[in-house]
């Protein structure tokens, strides 16, 4: 996210007197928020810092995202604000930058004249702050979207600018997160696209950059030869565009994850690459945010880790950067002394690593390691057990434990103890030694099979890494565990049944409601076929084929029709079926019945709570429904599109777990209509907008909405659905999970129209933290 290289910078605020490769905090206390300016930067608060840049005087600039400010840290460590008054929004240009509003500044860069450029993300603008402190817009009208290229940059739309960089000729480059493009603004103000065709995805390398796909491009940097480097976030790659416009990959194989260091950068995995920077020797630094590391790609193409051990978190400063923890590192920048600055996003800090550009990690002596497996044949669901290896040395050299890391990747369905929500468990053995031909290191972890885990065989994998390398003999283990469960309860009294969604329709309209079946703590329930009698609330009748769905299985969504009959002129629905739960891997979690209903043509507006559901010997539950105003001639079907479980962890940010498909089933086109998205308890919408992807055009359209005070409802009053009869559009809002979210299956609901003429739900699994 910095400019060309450290040759354009001064020496920044990294503390002096530290050994090469040692990490220290240069800004932020670790608590999210804002205190004040004018004091030492390590003693004030930041709020999810992102992009960084260093100027010729050694001042460090920070995009302080949710403080809606750009901060400056002087070489002697004093922090001030240079843009933004702390309020999210947009007022005007031409005045003092510190008196106006920004809206989620994502990245910064600074040119040789001292002008600071800001990717003002949610304002859909790129702003410029002069050395005198005056702010102007240099790209974007403030409305998210895409029109065309070749005209004035300030007169066209851009869509959520993310990364930003300035080259030696004062050309400005910025990435558009939601337009999947990288744009260039010349010194005369003309805008063009230099990478990306506007479609999200990945095609290939070696051709024109403007003809290929990008997928949420993020950080940028430019080298002295005019090559542009792009962090292609959801393609899990770093791409390079030459001055003649040819695109290639320089890091990442497209598969998110972490394999090892020391080999070709294009053959290994990176995860959600964000910030980029170059040093004077041409080494490329990558904020490998999903791996909680900063990686370095040498000019010859070899990748290594220079900061972060791959475990999310924070450890005290003062030790080797490669052995400490980072938490989603994003922005990176370098100063003239070769110090590396890291936007440690989840830790609300900016960290500095001393002389990282000159640091060459010493190679450890050769090792010959292997593991003796520790794994039970079978484990009772809910039981804690040991899983892992005893690491042995059969080589002639002693092995320093600080170079040895064991990584246990738990099978889906198993969890570490204590529960952290992370199925990737790691341990490094600093301070321990393995003698030649003997010794043992404890690579065994405490693991459990949670109560919701279905029975079956679960294969976890374990790697023994030596100095980041897994290319050793016998370095990988496959550890099977058979999970067994108690005998199932043979009647329906072990079930809890609730109405999951309330149908809302105008007279004559069709809609659905859902009923959820749950068993406590994953208890198997197998009552056999039982009679389930549903009575519709006033104003509704049953119409159409009811269906069941298990959303929480390891096989994805398991669904099918339900045997049923309709009585009393549509007032009564009788379903005869077996609502079994947690008896196999295909019926885990909760069971959802989706039941079609239609509002009577003569129904009066209002809410009616006099329906019921009698499930075998369970006490009847109340069924409710709402009749709205006049009938619409529009109809649509809303369905969840994921074939696999959508999963989030408590505290996850900027995820897209809920993807809903709206299909036009009416005889005329659906244009701009109100959509209302409601998040479940424990989740909220991350921004005041929602993205729609259209089947016909293949284009993403971003619609501005309004969130409720608690963030759990998002209303777009004029969402550009634009669906012809028989066609569809995908809706995928950005969401966040609260850190205290309760694990389990929850639902995001969507209503279309005002009054609603279609409704549906997407299921999301909140995992154990």
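^ structure tokens above, recovered residues below v
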């Amino acid at each position: 996210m910095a400019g060309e290289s450290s040759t354009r910078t001064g020496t920044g605020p990294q503390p002096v007197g530290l050994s090469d490769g040692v990490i220290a905090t240069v800004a932020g206390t670790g608590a999210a928020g804002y205190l004040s300016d004018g004091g030492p930067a390590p003693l004030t608060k930041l709020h999810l810092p992102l992009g960084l840049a260093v100027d010729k005087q050694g001042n460090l600039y920070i995009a302080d995202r949710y403080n809606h400010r750009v901060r400056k840290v002087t070489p002697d460590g004093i922090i001030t604000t240079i843009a933004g008054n702390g309020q999210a929004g947009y007022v005007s240009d031409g005045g003092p930058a510190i008196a106006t509003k920004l809206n989620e500044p994502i990245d910064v860069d600074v040119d040789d004249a001292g002008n600071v450029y800001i990717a003002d993300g949610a304002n859909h603008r790129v702003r410029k702050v002069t050395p005198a402190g005056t702010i102007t817009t240099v790209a974007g009208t403030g409305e998210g979207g895409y029109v065309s290229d070749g005209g004035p940059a300030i007169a066209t739309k851009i869509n959520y600018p993310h990364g930003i960089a300035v080259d030696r000729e004062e050309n400005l480059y910025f990435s558009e997160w939601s337009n999947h493009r990288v744009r260039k603004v010349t010194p005369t103000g003309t805008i063009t696209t230099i990478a990306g065709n506007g479609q999200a995805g990945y095609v290939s390398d070696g051709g024109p950059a403007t003809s290929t796909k990008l997928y949420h491009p993020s950080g940028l940097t430019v080298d002295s030869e005019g090559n542009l480097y792009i962090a292609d976030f959801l393609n899990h790659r770093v791409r390079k565009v030459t001055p003649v416009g040819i695109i290639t990959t320089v890091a990442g194989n497209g598969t998110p994850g972490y394999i090892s260091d020391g080999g070709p950068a294009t053959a290994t995995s990176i995860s959600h690459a964000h910030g980029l920077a170059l040093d004077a020797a041409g080494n490329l630094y990558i904020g490998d945010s999903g791996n909680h590391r900063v990686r370095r790609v040498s000019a010859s193409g070899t990748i290594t880790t220079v900061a972060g051990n791959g475990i999310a978190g924070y450890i005290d400063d003062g030790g080797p950067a490669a052995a400490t923890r980072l938490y989603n590192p994003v922005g990176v920048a370098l100063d003239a002394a070769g110090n590396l600055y890291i936007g440690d996003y989840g830790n609300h800090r900016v960290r500095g690593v001393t002389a990282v550009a000159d640091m060459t990690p010493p190679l450890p002596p050769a090792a010959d390691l292997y593991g003796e497996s520790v794994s039970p044949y079978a484990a009772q669901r809910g039981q804690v057990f040991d899983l892992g290896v005893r690491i042995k040395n059969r080589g002639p050299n002693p092995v320093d434990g600080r170079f040895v890391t064991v990584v246990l990747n738990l099978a889906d369905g198993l969890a570490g103890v204590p529960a952290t929500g992370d199925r990737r468990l790691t341990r490094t053995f600093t301070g321990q030694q393995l003698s030649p031909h003997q010794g043992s290191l404890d690579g065994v972890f405490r693991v459990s099979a949670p109560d919701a885990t279905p029975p079956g065989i679960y294969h976890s994998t374990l790697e023994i890494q030596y100095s980041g390398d897994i290319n050793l003999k016998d370095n990988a283990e496959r550890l099977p565990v058979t999970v067994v469960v108690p005998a199932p309860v043979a009647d329906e009294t072990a079930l809890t049944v609730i109405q999951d969604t309330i149908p809302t329709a105008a007279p004559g309209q069709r809609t659905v409601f859902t009923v959820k079946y749950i068993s406590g703590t994953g208890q198997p329930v197998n009552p056999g076929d039982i009679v389930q009698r549903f009575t519709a609330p006033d104003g509704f009748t049953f119409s159409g084929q009811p269906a069941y769905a298990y959303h929480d299985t390891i096989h994805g969504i398991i669904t099918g029709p339900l045997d049923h009959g309709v009585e009393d002129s549509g007032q009564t629905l009788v379903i005869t079926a077996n609502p079994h739960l947690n008896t196999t891997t295909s019926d885990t979690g909760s069971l959802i019945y989706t039941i079609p209903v239609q509002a009577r043509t003569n129904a009066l507006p209002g809410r009616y709570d006099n329906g019921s559901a009698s499930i075998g010997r369970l006490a009847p539950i109340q069924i409710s429904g709402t009749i709205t105003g006049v009938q619409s001639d529009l109809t649509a079907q809303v369905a969840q599109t994921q074939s696999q479980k959508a999963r989030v962890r408590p505290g996850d940010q900027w995820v897209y777990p809920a993807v809903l498909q709206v299909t036009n089933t009416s005889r005329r086109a659906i244009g701009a209509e109100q959509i209302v998205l409601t998040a479940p308890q424990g989740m909220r919408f991350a921004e005041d907008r929602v993205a729609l992807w259209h089947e016909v055009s293949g284009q993403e359209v971003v619609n501005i909405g309004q969130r409720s005070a608690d963030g759990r409802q998002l209303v777009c009053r004029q969402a550009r659905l634009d669906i012809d009869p028989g066609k569809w559009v995908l809706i995928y809002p950005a969401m966040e999970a609260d850190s205290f979210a309760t694990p389990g299956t929850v639902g995001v609901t969507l209503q279309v129209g005002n009054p609603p003429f279609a409704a549906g739900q997407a299921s999301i699994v909140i995992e154990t933290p």
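The chain has no helices and 60 strands.
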